[in-house]
Design goal:
Number of strands: 8
Largest sheet: 8 strands, parallel, barrel
Strand content: 15-25%
Radius of gyration: 16 Å
Number of helices: 9
CATH superfamily of the domain at 6-103 and 161-205: Aldolase class I
Helix content: 25-40%
């Protein structure tokens, strides 16, 4: 999965109220490497319905589908993996629940958490927020210098997240991270296809 620098797209229930499936398909068609389904305010029934739709699309485009936080939803629809935060089910339990064949990702916000992640059975870590962002209310800015250090000390691939857009993606890639995760840079407003292609091109040409 991380044999190249990846573009990791995360869905957002506020940005994808309309044309949910259509927008995600445009992102997939335009070169997204991973989709994470994140829906903090929906109940399990609605999440499963949407996740099933996303899984069909991800299978069609041969792209892994990761479920944010909800191990039960990931198992129910046989998603490719699950991504958890520091306050969610601890990684050791997540790995027991999903087995060794699923992808497990972990959010980290500082270098201490990166060092702790080195001892855990995770496949990659997310690190951020790199810049200020509106899509996560509790996001504290970690910055580019800390991202560089995280890349140095992490034993797992590092995906940078938080406020990454066309005008700063190259600065982020220069840190040596293995991928960039975006939300509003793809899903806010219109032109999902064009925005995805532009980000993907910048990664490819880096």
């Amino acid at each position: 999965m991380f044999n190249k620098k990846i573009l990791y797209a995360i869905t957002d229930e506020n940005l994808l109220k309309e044309n949910f499936v259509e927008k995600v398909e445009k992102a997939l068609k335009s070169g997204v490497d991973i989709i994470q389904y994140r829906a903090k305010k929906k109940d399990a029934k609605d999440m499963i319905e949407e996740a099933i739709m996303l899984k069909k699309l991800c299978v069609k485009y041969n792209v892994p589908l990761i479920i944010n936080d909800r191990v039960d939803v990931a198992l129910a629809i046989d998603a490719d993996g699950v991504h958890v935060g520091q306050e969610d089910i601890p990684v050791l339990y997540v790995r027991k629940m999903v087995g060794n064949n699923k992808i497990v990702g972990l959010s980290t916000k500082n270098l201490r958490q990166v060092e702790e992640a080195n001892k855990l059975p995770v496949d990659y870590i997310g690190f951020g927020s790199i810049f200020p962002t509106n899509t996560k209310e509790d996001a504290k800015v970690a910055g580019l210098e800390n991202l560089k250090e995280a890349v140095k000390i992490s034993l797992q691939p590092v995906v940078a997240i938080g406020g990454i857009k066309e005008n700063n993606i190259e600065e982020v890639l220069k840190t040596g991270c293995d991928g960039v995760a975006v939300v509003s840079a793809i899903f806010a407003g219109e032109n999902t296809e064009e925005k995805t292609k532009s980000l993907k091109e910048r990664i490819r040409n880096f």
